[in-house]
Amino acid sequence: MRGLPALLPVLSLALAQTVIPFWHTAGPPGDRVLEEAIRSFNAGQNAYRLEARYVGDYREAGVKLLAALRSGRPPALFHAELSFLPRLAKEGLALPLDAYLQDLPQDLYPAPLKAGQVGGRTYGLPLGVSVPALYYNKDAFRAKGLKPPMTWAEVERAAEALTSRTAKGMVIATDVWSFNAIVMSLGGSLVKDGLPAFTSKEAVEALEMLYRMVQKGHAQARNLAEAQFAVADFLRTKAFMGIGPTTALPVVLAQTALPFQVGYAPLPRVPGGAVPLSGAVLVVLKGAGPEEARGAVAFWRHFLEPKRQADWVRTTWYLPLRRAAEAELKDFLQEPERRAVFAQVEAARPWSQDPELVVWYGYLEEALEKSLKQGVKPRVALEEAQKKALAAER
């Protein structure tokens, strides 16, 4: 019994600590930075403890979360892809966090913060957000005397010039993110007034452009199930251009050495066009209490420390969330191509803040595949997707 008084403070501390189950989607190479942040957060204070679990990529994590919500055993904290956030908020599954966000650092960039808002309320804390890049094979461009395309017409011409008997000028992904990036760059949107806008002028124009390149033999279309082949097309010089987020290149470089120089350029954009801000946010889910919400915000603040932000940006090529991190990133951000691509944040907006899009995008991806892989005329394919989406809405 004499040892009991000495144990009481330890027991009291353990009972007072709030444990926060946290499901995340950060794979290599960014997992190292996130895991270090979790370890240092847990070791640096006694009020909260994050128990982290990797649950796959964005789509895999979404499926697992839906299963957990049905069983009544979701985590308190979830790393949600941006297009998933509006649905969680609309259905009351994500908790608003504004009450816990007083005295935020004044140097936070506004665009990433806006990405975590739905209907003017904050439901997500930005962890990693990115903009798109037009990736190209520098060696192939030099051999043909080509410059990085600045317009979509130049993309088409470059694809034609680069196409040979054994290679295509461009690889095209038929997923909703890639297509939406082009639609946004043309000044359009896939949703208007809460309804699908798959047959808008910009959407039709975007698909007609991709269709032309495929029909002429200047581009190869790949669906989501063939994503690894799309990457392989580029790596094996079977295609010389492709669209992807800034974060795509570090993932590839962490896995393989490239036999050529990779260039990256801003996405071509018309006046008034935008680029998609994509990525993921931390979401506190329904069922979590105030202390878990406070703990989630405390961890996010910890993650925002400038040196940690700089390490995160260098490792992942996500955009910096704070201006203070730029002092640690001067050489990284001074590289001309990278600076130009990262500067797109000035024209960036969240790629999806419409909760219905996660219900509709399957119809759109089906239409993209029918058009680009089966030869269905673009407008016909998009009209079919529009009808299916409207029927689902009713």
UniProtKB/TrEMBL annotation:
Keywords: Signal, Transport. The keyword Signal applies. The keyword Metal-binding does not apply. Pfam families: SBP_bac_8. This is Sugar ABC transporter, periplasmic sugar-binding protein. GO terms for cellular component: cell envelope. It comes from Thermus thermophilus (strain ATCC 27634 / DSM 579 / HB8). It comes from the Bacteria. It is found in: Cell envelope. The lineage of its organism: Bacteria, Thermotogati, Deinococcota, Deinococci, Thermales. PANTHER family: ARABINOSE-BINDING PROTEIN-RELATED (PTHR43649), SN-GLYCEROL-3-PHOSPHATE-BINDING PERIPLASMIC PROTEIN UGPB (PTHR43649:SF31). Belongs to the bacterial solute-binding protein 1 family. InterPro entries: Bact_solute-bd_prot1 (IPR050490), SBP (IPR006059). Its main location: other.
